[in-house]
Specification:
Number of helices: 15
Distance between the termini: 63 Å
CATH class of one domain: Alpha Beta
Strand content: 15-25%
Structural class: alpha/beta
Number of strands: 26
CATH architecture of one domain: 3-Layer(aba) Sandwich
Length: 511
């Protein structure tokens, strides 16, 4: 109650008591001033911050479904998400709306305006509920005891890297079980300080840095943009951060721009969403004194499936190990298996195939899209779309993505392997996205490999020769006339490769 629980780079800081009190006050104001009695889904358009946490908590304890919207997408995509959920109100701030050029089909509610709407009764009621009312009584008063674990808690939209974003329905059981499982393997303590830089429209940000803060003991600190490395570093140093969850793209920036002193207390750095290169782990450890480990998850899985755990953080409750080059072992209660890409037959240890996951973290489904839900949920197993192998110790090694394979002559051809071979052959800078492999339909072979690039030092014929010398099978080597120069490689606002747009560009150039 009296201990610092949340802080952000604006200087805002709340104790546990202040967090609960403000959440209860905001809930009263939303009920009175904004939300209709039967309004189920509420939009939130806020960056990681103390205010965003309070707003999410207030919506959730009012037994509504919080929908954190992606402010990096176009207005058209955002409004499609809003329509899918039937959202009438979006909680945001004027600063956010000034920063992003968005035309939103919903009523905007600026949370800073609520300061003038707080009454003396609001304050007294919240104080009494916070300090005097037993938790069990407060839970009943708020109706929280009526929540079914399988009720939808949030809708998080996928990144849309392979098509239109889908609304993933995550339940209270999904999010709660994932927090407990993650806690059990990394042994979260009262003394821990989590860093919240991932956006709350990202499932990792929502589960690991928002609800972990609200349900467990560690303090959590927030910065509104993961791209501002120096500010993130200063925040970590000021609060003695011990756990950082980020993507390899952001970690590379921190390794180059942050000071070692800022990371003096850091014990665990987990990278997800992209492959963690060994050279990046080496650089980060050399510059900042802690070696990042890799984890794996998807929005549909709440999101964490597996994680490597360094020896310094291994928990006695559910011990897990660490093996570089893998994404770790599944969390407690989560099962993973690999099946044949064509037949669906279970494969043995060490064999590469489609990765399937089951457990309490598997989503309820895609909102309003039962046909798409049926495509990925099979007898309790979620079909990840990722190609992987699982070793005898249970460590998962991701080898590719189904959408990043082509079937040519009956053989599965991995785009990523071709990209990696071109990068090595031409000694390209791995930090710069200068080339991508995709495919277009081909009447004779089924698919034709295409290389889109922003400029390569060698002629296509020479590149093809080098790919052959590197040992790639002929069927994996694009033809010299399948290389095309473009102005820039399409990426999403989150920094991920926009595979849908890449395919569209290729189809225009190679109809």
């Amino acid at each position: 109650m009296r201990r610092a629980k949340l802080a952000d780079s604006s200087g805002a800081e709340l104790t546990g008591a202040a967090l609960l009190s403000r959440t209860l006050m905001l809930r009263r104001i939303l009920q009175r001033e904004v939300l209709g009695r039967h309004e189920k889904h509420v939009g939130l358009l806020l960056p990681p911050s103390v205010g965003a946490v309070v707003a999410n908590a207030a919506v959730s304890i009012d037994r509504r479904v919080a929908v954190n919207l992606n402010y990096t997408v176009s207005s058209e995509i955002m409004n499609a998400c809003i329509a899918r959920c039937g959202i009438r109100h979006v909680l945001t701030s004027r600063r956010v709306m000034e920063k992003f050029d968005l035309d939103i089909d919903a009523q905007l509610v600026y949370i800073e305006d609520f300061k003038d709407k707080v009454t003396l009764l609001d304050k007294l009621t919240a104080a009494a509920q916070t300090w005097l009312m037993p938790v069990s009584v407060l839970e009943r008063r708020l109706g929280l005891t009526e929540i079914d674990p399988d009720d939808v808690m949030t809708v998080i939209f996928t990144s849309g890297s392979t098509g239109q974003p889908k609304g993933v329905m995550l339940t209270h059981r999904n999010v709660g079980s994932n927090i407990r499982a993650f806690d059990s393997v990394v042994d979260l303590k009262k003394s821990d300080v989590l860093v919240g830089i991932l956006p709350l429209f990202h499932s990792f940000g929502y589960t690991a840095t928002l609800w972990t803060a609200l349900t467990l003991e560690p303090k959590t600190i927030y910065h509104y943009s993961p791209l501002e490395a120096q500010q993130v570093g200063k925040l970590c140093g000021r609060h003695g951060a011990t756990i950082l969850i980020a993507t390899p793209t952001f970690l590379r920036s921190y390794a180059r721009r942050c000071n070692r002193e800022d990371f003096a207390a850091m014990e665990l750095v987990v990278a997800g969403a992209e492959k963690l290169p060994v050279e990046l782990a080496d650089l980060f450890e050399k510059k900042l004194g802690v070696r990042p480990v890799e984890g794996y998850g998807t929005t549909e899985l709440s999101p964490v499936v597996s994680v490597n755990v360094p020896s310094s953080r291994i928990s006695a409750r559910a011990p897990r190990g660490c093996k570089e080059g893998t994404v770790g072992q599944p969390l407690p209660g989560i099962s993973a298996k690999v099946v044949d890409l064509d037949t669906g037959e279970d494969l043995g240890v060490g064999k590469s195939g489609m990765l399937l996951v089951s457990g309490p973290n598997v989503m309820k489904g895609y909102l309003g899209q039962p046909e798409l839900t049926a495509e990925v949920l099979r007898s309790g197993w979620y079909v990840t779309g990722d190609v992987a192998a699982i070793d005898a110790e249970g460590f998962i090694r991701i080898t590719g993505r189904e959408s990043r394979f082509s079937k040519i002559g009956g053989e599965m051809v991995p785009h990523i392997r071709i990209e990696e071979t071109i990068t090595r052959a031409l000694q390209l800078d791995e930090e710069q996205l200068t080339m991508v492999v995709t495919a277009v339909p081909d009447a004779r072979k089924g698919e034709r490999l295409i290389v889109l690039h922003t400029g390569l030092a060698e002629a296509p014929q020479e590149i093809c020769r080098r790919l052959s010398e590197a040992g790639l099978p002929p069927i994996w080597i694009p033809s010299p006339d399948s290389f095309h120069r473009i102005k820039e490689i399409p990426v999403l606002g989150t920094g991920k490769l926009d595979l849908k747009r890449v395919k569209e560009v290729a189809l225009v150039e190679f109809p």
